[in-house]
Amino acid sequence: MEHHIDFEPVGRRGHCPADQTLLDCARDLGVDLVNLCGGAGSCGRCKVQLLAGTASELNSVERTTLSSDEIAEGYRLACQAYPLSDARVRVPPDSLTTPQRTQVDGLEVRVRPEPPVRAFRVRLEPPSLEDLRADAERLLAALEDQHDVAGCTIDLAVLRDLSPQLRERSWEVGLMVRDKEIVGLTAWPSRPLGLAVDLGTTKIAAYLVDLESGETLASRGIMNPQIAYGEDLIARIERVMTTPAEADRMQALVVDALNEAAASLCAEVDAAPAEIVEAVLVGNTAMHHLFLRLPVEQLALSPYVPAVGAALDVKARQLGLCIAPGAYVHLLPNIAGFVGADHVAMLLATELRDAEGVVLALDIGTNTEVCLFNHGKMTSVSCASGPAFEGAHITHGMRAANGSIENVRLVGDRIEFKTIGDDPPVGLCGSGILDALDQLYQAGVLDSKGRMGDHPRVRATDGSREFVLVSEEEQAGRPAITITQKDVRELQLAKGAIHTGIQVLLETNGLSEDDIDQVIIAGAFGTYIDVSSAMGIGMLPRLPLERFRQVGNAAGTGARLALVSLSKRAEAQAIAGQVGYVELATAPSFMQIFAQSMYLG
Amino acid sequence: MEHHIDFEPVGRRGHCPADQTLLDCARDLGVDLVNLCGGAGSCGRCKVQLLAGTASELNSVERTTLSSDEIAEGYRLACQAYPLSDARVRVPPDSLTTPQRTQVDGLEVRVRPEPPVRAFRVRLEPPSLEDLRADAERLLAALEDQHDVAGCTIDLAVLRDLSPQLRERSWEVGLMVRDKEIVGLTAWPSRPLGLAVDLGTTKIAAYLVDLESGETLASRGIMNPQIAYGEDLIARIERVMTTPAEADRMQALVVDALNEAAASLCAEVDAAPAEIVEAVLVGNTAMHHLFLRLPVEQLALSPYVPAVGAALDVKARQLGLCIAPGAYVHLLPNIAGFVGADHVAMLLATELRDAEGVVLALDIGTNTEVCLFNHGKMTSVSCASGPAFEGAHITHGMRAANGSIENVRLVGDRIEFKTIGDDPPVGLCGSGILDALDQLYQAGVLDSKGRMGDHPRVRATDGSREFVLVSEEEQAGRPAITITQKDVRELQLAKGAIHTGIQVLLETNGLSEDDIDQVIIAGAFGTYIDVSSAMGIGMLPRLPLERFRQVGNAAGTGARLALVSLSKRAEAQAIAGQVGYVELATAPSFMQIFAQSMYLG
Fold it and tell me: CB under 8 Å to A78, separation ≥6 — which residues?
């Protein structure tokens, strides 16, 4: 007997034998739960939360290890609990061994720091009957006197802390000053920290940065917990439209995740979240709006306009972010309803504005934004590529984690593959999916319409065909890893969307593929794909390999640049103003291009 | 048999026969409960809340009239409930017939309006596939285009409302603009309203003002509910020092009271609190700090400095005020730990800065601030006069309400008096107390040390002497109204404090009483006192009557001026910078002057 187990938010689901623990199920499905004691129940690290379904009764090991609060909330030790039915299981971030390996890496941050917040040491004379100035005025006078910084105001939250802090710290403090406002008060010496966030539909990348040196001190990739409300942004917008109260919950989910991320990042460098005196957040327009609790209805209805385009500075506390009490979150500008601040950040990081010739820049994700630089003129489109390349909606798809197949070669009837961590294979991540699709097409298993033909590894199940990458036998009895005909259709839609965007941009500019001097591929998925495979199936233009540049999470890099440099913020605003936007669906030949783009090759 | 009943927050307490309803008790003690049906229980207006003690069981009338929530919270109909023990009873504002009559009246607001918030009508072209600008940028462009107002930002709370509002209102809205920030969004036509608040230790005066005309549309006087935490500000500061969490509760109490006041004021003129787009609040430094949740410890410890002196602009929502979501509260500057924004507001309203010669200005309250204008130079002191003149700590004292004795004359053995509303006498309000003290002193019943001598109306109770103003017989069996020896001591302390302040100011300026050209008396109490009586006991300088000017609640007037005029705000800041402050206790001859000031006459 088997149960269907769905692990959230890692996005891995499948059937597991009823006599396996949840830990075994997780392993089979490629979910890397922490497990230091080998399943003995002594380390207590493999905590999961049972959201739906039933499992074996709590045993004595779990009763000892879990708190009563945890038990009340449905927490279990995965190594002790057996599913008794189909189940939905939440895996908290702390129970995962390997965060998504790829989502935080990106271009180096090379910029002279011009931080928005500067730290000043101020020493005051204490008040006396001869000098009865209020604490705030005393502080501001000293700041002007000692640092020539005049005309400042003090954030109310900082003001509330000022009088006791001055007395506790013997009238010597560090002041965090942002554009004539005191946003933080600390002991001296103090080091102003910043938080940069790339808020993706699926993944969140967070970076802790030293504002004075510009150095990235720590980084962390986590899942966007809003996935529970829908895997793509349209699903989430629809959720808000049908149940407006969910907008608050979705906002709170992201804020909680960011607060947790900030706390762990700070813990890594022995700092406290209150030392974070500035944050920069980028995301697509929908993520940006949901994060700020701005209305999203108009994003989903023609003509799809954002509530706001310009860059914003918002008090972090107004959003529930637990960093310095007076700190701001800076949000880079949005270009259009589906071309957001993350695209601007990518353009900033890749310095596309200063390119020469014709350059194509793509940020491949659940939504893919493409910008064409044509001798100084930039035009962008947005393609709803969907989460297929992130492993979702693909039968044996999974996110890039240990045991996921990342490269595939078909040699005759034999399959050669490589998994992340060289672990036994448990599924396919994006680059593996792309490789498989290309190999099947090159070998003629798939025709250009994506129809699956005959091959020794092709079999029919339930009337539908599938290609067996790893069979049950090769898996020592565990489930096979296959690519189904339905998977191929999903992937055709995804690659077709991206190809359409590129073609519409070229057409709008009167250019052809051959005119492209360089292709910049950004995004976690884009970093690890085999460009030949992407060209092979016709997702990317067929060009010499040396014209491609894979830059990793450029949006995250752009966020960090804007975090440490006011000039970069100004540049981001200029970019947003310069980029022309093409609404894909309104391009004259859209339908025709899209139909052609679905073909492989 | 009798019970001791304490009515809060009106501050009236006394013994009532056990066979009287709470309504009868309230009447006896001068608490004006609403009672439209004559005690039949049918109007349901005399609701009170039993905070301590027991009363008769709920009867069927109460069960029908009160909601289950009210019953759970201890609400009773005063006309139906009989006390069964000593009791503490809260009277909600709605159950009182007459608010404090005097606390809102003041000088007329005569100033050309230069409001901080201006309303603009803006009409927009809706977005289309040819014009995909974001809603915010579209709005800002129209504002610049139609009204030449450029470079504005939009408050996040307003931004959250913008996209749906534009669509609901067919792309025509009213914008409330404050110093390049859009703080409100309304239907058009719209009328920007303002709220001015004088937050006193005992009383709160609130005014609803039309920002464009400067006209006061409605006003309301309520009690400061923080009284439950101590009648004077030192008691409240000590409460916060011993139990810091109380600061949040005290702040919330005032905010709740202001929200209620704003809602009733708006209801009077058929408006909604969300139409209030700006507020100004003045109060003494302690009330100011408690309202902003600023630390108050340093106010209570030498050298008694405020956390902040300068004027502040704070988002109303950050304080919990339910007015327009983006509105600010402007707080006038404080001068010193015990000379606050209310004093600045009084000086602003009385235009003392533009006076000639030598002028003394007093705002008499639980704390009394005195300013001496000496040919252009202003010096202020603060005197802890206590709440005796507000009727507190005086055996038969009460606040100015119907039935309180406000004037007293002693003609031989006979007493002549006048009560507010010409109702049967129930107690003494401030002006009556002052009159009585003066009359007893002039008649020789009190000597200059305040010792009570013999008189047909003086009697001894429990070894202490008291002067009977209205006897039990004259009251038809209800309790007598008397002035006790202890009352006299309380009043000597109060008048001594004020006299000391005046004398120290004169001495500091090298002046004597005769040099004073004018005395301005502000404050609710000061409006109704008989100046001759105040001179008679030696509280005010002995000067010709025509040199005195009673101006009512000048602090409230100053708050209204600052609400409607940016020039007046600048003037207030200038005043705060000009006024010199003398810490009373540090004046060389303070002890000597204070000892002398205690004498009557």
Answer: A21, A22, A23, A26, A33, A35, A46, A47, A48, A89, A95
Q: Are A334 and A307 spatial neighbours (Cβ–Cβ below 8 Å)?
A: no
- The answer to whether B454 touches B466, Cβ cutoff 8 Å, is no
Cα A70 off chain centre by: 28
Give residue-wise pLDDT tens across range B495-522.
999 999 999 999 999 999 999 999 999 9
Give how far Cα B566 sits from Cα of B280, B563, B571, Å: 11, 8, 9
Pick from B129, B164, B305: CB nearest A134: B305
Residue A1 one-letter amino acid: M
Sheet holding B404-411, edge to edge: B414-419, B404-411, B427-428
Same fold, A2-95 and A117-186: yes
Interface residues on B facing A, Cβ-Cβ cutoff 8 A: 127-129, 132-137, 154, 156, 159-160, 162-164, 167, 292-295, 297-298, 302-310, 312, 314, 318, 334, 336-337, 581, 583, 586
Q: What is the CATH number of domain B117-186?
A: 3.10.20.880
Calculate mean pLDDT across residues A301-305: 92
b (16+ CB within 10 A) / e for A392-410: bbbebbbbbbbbbbbbbeb
> If you ran DSSP here, which 8-state letter would residue A325 be given?
T
Q: Which of A137, A292, A303 sits opposite B127 (nearest CB)?
A: A303
Phi-psi region of A563 (alpha: psi -120 to 50; beta: other; left: phi over 0): alpha
List residues bridging with B398 in a β-sheet.
none
**What is the ipTM score, two decimals?**
0.83
Report which of B77, B50, B82, B37 is spatially closest to residue B61, judged by C-alpha positions. Answer: B77
| Parallel/antiparallel/unpaired status of strands B458-461 and B276-283 | unpaired
Class of domain B2-95: alpha beta
* φ and ψ of A175, to 5 deg: -110, 135
Q: What counts of helices (H) and strands (E) characterise chain A?
A: 18, 27
Q: Alpha-carbon dihedral of residues B127, B132, B136, B139, nearest 10 degrees?
A: -50
Cis peptide before B92 (omega within 30 of 0): no
Tell me, what's the pLDDT at A202? 84
Beta strand pairing call for A47-52 and A548-552? unpaired
Angle at A383 between CA A377 and CA A386, to 5 degrees: 150
| Predicted model pTM | 0.83
Lookup result for tokens 């629809």: A238
Domain boundaries, chain B: 2-95, 117-186
User: What is the average pLDDT across B383-411?
Assistant: 86
A370: left (phi over 0), alpha (psi -120 to 50) or beta: beta
B294, B581, B584: best to mutate for the A interface, most A CBs within 10 A: B294
CA A2 to chain centre: 33
- Hey, what are A285's tokens? 């327009």
Q: Which of A294, A296, A344, A381 should we substitute to test contact with B (largest number of B Cβ atoms within 10 Å)?
A: A294
- Please check the confidence at residue B250 and state whether its pLDDT lies above 90: yes
**Contact (CB<8Å) A134/B583:** no
| Euclidean distance between CA atoms A554 and A556, whole angstroms | 5
Three-class SS of B76-119: EECCCCCECCCEEEECCHHHECCCCCCCCCCCCCCCCCECCEEE
- Which CATH code fits A193-331? 3.30.420.480
β-bridge partners, B467: B458, B483
- The two three-digit tokens of residue A294, written as one number: 């701005």
Q: What is the pLDDT of residues A154-174, one digit of tens each?
A: 999 999 999 999 999 999 999
Task: Tell me the C-alpha distance between B284 and B201, whole Å.
Answer: 8
Question: For the segment A394-443, what is each residue's pLDDT rounded down to a tens digit?
Answer: 888 887 777 889 999 999 889 999 998 888 898 898 899 999 999 999 99
C-alpha distances (whole Å) from A483 to each of A30, A87, A93, A435 are 17, 25, 29, 11
